[in-house]
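To close the section, here is one more complete example, presented without commentary so you can practise reading it yourself. The ligand is 4'-phosphopantetheine.
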Amino acid sequence: MAKRAIYPGTFDPLTNGHIDIIARACHLFDEVVVAILVNPGKQPLFTVEERIEILHAVLTPQFPQVRLATFQGLLVEFARAQQADAIIRGVRSVKDYDYELPMVLMNRRLHPQLETVLLVAAEENSFVSSSLMKEVFSLGGSIDGLVPELVIQRMQEKRSQKSS
Ligand code: PNS
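Output:
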């Protein structure tokens, strides 16, 4: 039976850290559903539609097993509807592990058959986060090599839209 995993996140924006975790997940699972959380309470840099467009352009050519989706509400309910076997989360540090562990245990309590697989990020991405990328870019610093080229282009477009 084909094994399906969900890789959930905000992806605002997609980073090379996310791509590294997706590549690792694709080695382990037949299908990886990259699932963007639609969170009406948050003010994102990119709309959900913009994030889907970026993820589609960057991920589809590289990873045939990847499918894109959006979800709202409880992750375990989305995973149930998708008949997923596992949730994938990337871990860069002990701090990430501390953040992930309560979610792993809560999700297990809500859906005991669903495993969470924590994948350790590549060393070169261990400091890369979407929020740090946004902060450095907004202050004029370079994030070249840390996010896909397309993300930088889209961030530049956002900046020029704002200033015009
Ligand atoms: O990339 P992020 O922002 O760290 O992703 C966090 C995410 C989407 C995995 C988490 O916020 C989540 O699962 N949200 C869905 C709501 C939910 O199920 N909450 C209970 C988790 S135990």
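Once you have examined the tokens, check your reading against these statements. The chain has a mean pLDDT of 97. The beta strands are 4-9, 31-37, 66-71, 86-91, 115-120.
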